[in-house]
TrEMBL record:
Protein name per Swiss-Prot or TrEMBL: DNA sulfur modification protein DndE
PANTHER family for the chain: SLR6007 PROTEIN, UNCHARACTERIZED PROTEIN YJGR-RELATED
Pfam families reported in the protein's UniProt record: DndE, DUF87
InterPro entries for the chain: DNA_S_DndE (IPR014969), DndE_sf (IPR038472), HerA_central (IPR002789), P-loop_NTPase (IPR027417), T4SS_component (IPR051162)
Lineage: Bacteria, Pseudomonadati, Bacteroidota, Flavobacteriia, Flavobacteriales
SUPFAM superfamilies xref list: P-loop containing nucleoside triphosphate hydrolases
Every Helicase HerA central domain range: 164-342
Amino acid sequence: MRIKISKENDELLYKLKTLYNFKNDGIVPRIAFSNSLLSGKIFDIENDIIPSSDGKEFRDDKAIFGTVIGNGSNTIIFKSILDQHYGRNTFEDEFIKLFKLHLNHGLEIWNGKIEKANISKGDHIDILLKVVKSGLDLRKNVVKTNISSKNIDVKEFEDLLTFELGQTVESENVVIRINDLREFDNRNIAIAGMAGSGKTQLMKDILYQISKNTNNELKFIFFDYKGEGNPEQLKPFLDATKCEFVDIVNDGGIEFNPFLSINLDERQRPFSIRAFVDTISTFVPRMGVSQENILITLINDLLDSKNGGYPTILELFEELENYYEENNIRQDTLYSIIRDLSTNIFNCNPNNPNILDKSLYLNLPPALSDTLRQLVVFLLLRYFNSYFSSTNDCEPKDHIFPLRYVIVIDEAHIYLKNKNARKALEELLRLLRSKGVIIVMLSQGVEDYKTKDFDFASQVKLPICLNVQNKDYKAISNFVGTPSSKYKLETEIKKLESGKGLINIGEPKMIELRQWWKTKKNENI
């Protein structure tokens, strides 16, 4: 989690840190934040002006929130306090915005008192002690609650998972301990690299290492949007990862029923159907409110007729076809897309086998329209979101965060260009990070991850920059994070070429990337 405060707050932070002789930069923000909450202040992030981000950046949340025993971040404690204050569960970007608002407010309160205080008499110490006393008094009235419930049993990989990205110029292996909370509080990965940069070969190598190092316990799905996968050429990779290759066009569809994302609980069902229809309307051009309402009505009727079961996409199309004929409605985009979805795209097995029980390489060839390929991906992502949201958050053990699944989204820029699709991706990144799901996005440029309404790099702890077309320093630094040395990053950017990558862990490092084709040869796979 990266938090960048305003220049004005940065100056106040330095002033108060110096006044109290605090050794750590994070102490003042924590006290100021608490001071604001104690005042009872409630902000509206939709209408209140969020403080600017032109000051100090806290790239590691441990630096601003501190650590607990075992060197784990205190972030969860501060988030829990904020959630209790607002009476709801806040997403990460909401938490960051509200934290910045309360930090600004708390610093104003604190500094206002300091301005009126007699420092030589120690009034500033009294100001601090009053805040501490107020917090201790408040603590007496806190009621401990436990509202979590486990609805679904999910297989977890509970050991440390490591994989190598490659080697530095000094021949030092770059090892990623992806679920070690002392190093990563966020397991999402973003890779940027143009065609020929080696990003797909790197990704296959990472998946191979994940499968090998977990004894194939941790399953994955790889969405190959380009649809260039060849089962014969991929056979060594598929065998090594125990992964099933599915070509949507040539294999008769994927064995999966997209309706499984709908919650059949009487209270949840209307919202779940609405979310399902929203997913379709996101990618279907010129789909209006009346078409959405038709779809909602038909799905409701089908679910009622199934008495606790799920219909198939073909059954939905048959009902839609009848509805259009009976009401003399001309075929439109909704009709076309449901018809196409019902034609060997989803093989809806009535036994509803769990798609998460095996690793999948999903090939989406260009024979399918862009609309259909994108919709297939997001209907599956909708299911993953629904499924994992019904589970408890993972419980870390000895600073190791359990893992449940890996989702790899190739050509992510295709979705990031779509406003509604990137909102769904944003939600996925937020909700599934606590569920033990690693989400990996691959795109062609670093600028793809920063949209006008959301910075996806802020949800990623491991950004990897390969050879990209746009080598603009500002764009790359925004993607990989503010470096310890601007000169060092600028120097490393100039070295980017095919097969090499840049990370910014501790300091900017250039890596000779691992490539699956090399691993296959070296390990005789």
